[in-house]
Design a protein that fits this description.
By secondary structure, this protein is α+β, with helices and mostly antiparallel strands. It folds into 2 domains: 167 residues, Four Helix Bundle (Hemerythrin (Met), subunit A); 92 residues, 2-Layer Sandwich (Nonspecific Lipid-transfer Protein, Chain A). The protein is 48% helix and 12% strand. A 6-stranded mixed β-sheet has the order 1-4-3-2-5-6. Helix 1 packs antiparallel against helix 5.
Length: 279
């Protein structure tokens, strides 16, 4: 086992966007209106959501525009999620007035600007947006960029699923997504008490997978890369099940039916509570 390291994926953003544009350009009118795993959203809506995220970042972080805040103060994580869902829904509704061609043009022009901007950040400086689903109030910029990469990858994958396109599951694309998601495990286990040194192993099968160990190092849980020799609990699942679970594409119950859980089931079962999106 060894300590986890920063996930540096800024150089992957532009080729990932190129694949998105190549995917969207030949779609038929019928394909643009197909439903996706995002409840109530079509392919068109998911593409519009991807555009929204980039425009918001450029406006606020690059250009210094004031962030739109809630009408009433946020009192907890649930309020934040509700507020973000409201912002997302407002944009998607308005964007239904846009043609697919215009959405593609905007994604190419302004998405490219976003890719360049993120690639130019100091990865070890402070993030503009902390990674809230990992429980952080302050994050390093590399973590924010990696989180952004996971957003772009998993929404593109939802579009690919909807239009029966080949998945982007080669290790180059998917492993950074899984590695980023698992950085939320210490937060998911924050209320779990255990003896110092207790370990939970997580093994994600497939070329894009790997092994991680969550270790209790009082007063917190710490994530390591590699597999513990004798963990108190061990969870194994394939990479496809993992990314869908952590983005709410599968329920914890559905994921557990596809996974293997050994050792202390109550302890290992907490892995299925990890949610690596703000929804």
């Amino acid at each position: 086992m060894k300590p986890v390291e920063p996930i540096l994926v800024a150089e992957c953003l532009r080729p990932l966007r190129t694949l998105l544009l190549d995917l969207l350009r030949p779609l038929s009118a019928e394909q643009w209106e197909r439903p996706t795993a995002c409840a109530g959203w079509t392919v068109r809506d998911v593409a519009a959501h991807l555009l929204d995220g980039g425009l918001r970042r450029l406006s606020s972080q690059r250009d210094g525009a004031r962030l739109v805040g809630p009408e009433t103060p946020l009192s907890g994580p649930g309020d934040l999620v509700a507020f973000l869902n409201q912002l997302n829904a407002e944009w998607v509704t308005a964007a239904r007035r846009l043609s697919p061609q215009l959405l593609i043009d905007l994604l190419e022009r302004y998405g490219g600007q976003e890719d360049d901007f993120l690639a130019g950040l100091d990865p070890f400086g402070e993030a503009f947006f902390p990674v809230a689903w990992a429980g952080e109030e302050r994050s390093a910029a590399w973590f924010d960029v990696a989180r952004e990469y996971t957003e772009k990858w998993h929404h593109q994958q939802q579009i690919r699923d909807a239009v029966d396109a080949p998945p982007l599951t080669a290790r180059r694309w998917l492993h950074p997504v899984l590695d980023t998601f698992l950085r939320g495990l210490p937060h998911a286990f924050r209320h779990v008490d255990a003896e110092d040194g207790t370990e939970v192993g997580v093994v994600l099968r497939g070329d894009a997978g790997g092994s991680w160990t969550l270790r209790r190092q009082a007063p917190r849980w710490v994530l390591w890369v590699g597999e513990a020799g004798s963990p108190a609990a061990r969870v194994g699942m394939d990479a496809d099940t993992a990314w869908r679970l952590f983005t709410k594409g599968l329920s914890p119950r559905e994921a557990r039916q596809r996974a293997e859980l050994s050792g202390a089931s109550a302890l290992g079962g907490r892995v299925f509570d990890l949610v690596a999106v703000m929804a």
